[in-house]
């Protein structure tokens, strides 16, 4: 039995041009799903889509800025008309603004919350409504963070947003379970992606991450993509409302 066979599924992946989003899209495609890649940059979308199409699956591209939360409803309705309703939603798009809470601006706070929380809520509920109206089950997989459970100095907007992702995952899971829509989150540890370039380039921080993590390395985007594909599959049919920490053992020690 192949518990991760997603043949016949349509997966919408936000933040799909790079990092965890791109790796997740590719893993879902390898498992048999057709893909809708969402990102802000059309050129990057086309480049990412070409690579995912190497799996043999159909890949649609959608250039859209999820920070424009009031436009998500209309955009999604247009997407449904053009492509269809996705069975799987991976909310991977995210932004960060680092700095002391006393130095960051309200605009920076609002931007982080708009992309990391409001967009997840708005897009997830429109996907769920379409599935419920059609009497179809589905999966929503949110990308949370170590910051869902802990924090570091200079990360207050990001930490608040990822804490909200963990609680929102629970709330939506309970609400939509009767409709067969399962909602879970993956909380990555320190992953070697573009979002963390500055941290990776800092020798002291790089050494701290490797020394602090029991497995002794930065994670890779594929380390997150594999459990994303599992949560989208039949093998995860009794899992909902969970945040799964994929962190190399980070939270298990001190």
Question: How is this structure best described in words?
Answer:
By secondary structure, the protein is of the alpha/beta class. About 45% of the residues lie in helices and about 15% in strands. The longest helix has 29 residues, at about 105-135. The termini are far apart. The mean pLDDT is about 95.
Beginning-to-end CA distance, first to last residue: 39 Å
Cα-atom Rg, whole angstroms?
17 Å
The H-and-E topology, N to C, reads as: EHEHEHEHEHEHHHE
For the largest beta-sheet, the strand count, sense and barrel status come to: 7 strands, parallel
Strands in their spatial order, largest beta sheet: 3-2-1-4-5-6-7
What portion of the residues fall into strands of 2 or more residues?
5-15%
Q: Count up the helices.
A: 8
Note the overall shape: globular
Mean pLDDT: 96
Query: How many strand units?
Result: 7
Structural class designation: alpha/beta
Proportion of helical residues: 40-55%
Question: Unreliable runs, pLDDT <50, ≥5 residues?
Answer: none
Summarize the structure.
This protein is of the alpha/beta class and 254 residues long. Helices cover 43% and strands 15% of the residues. It has a seven-stranded parallel sheet with strand order 3-2-1-4-5-6-7, with helices on both faces.
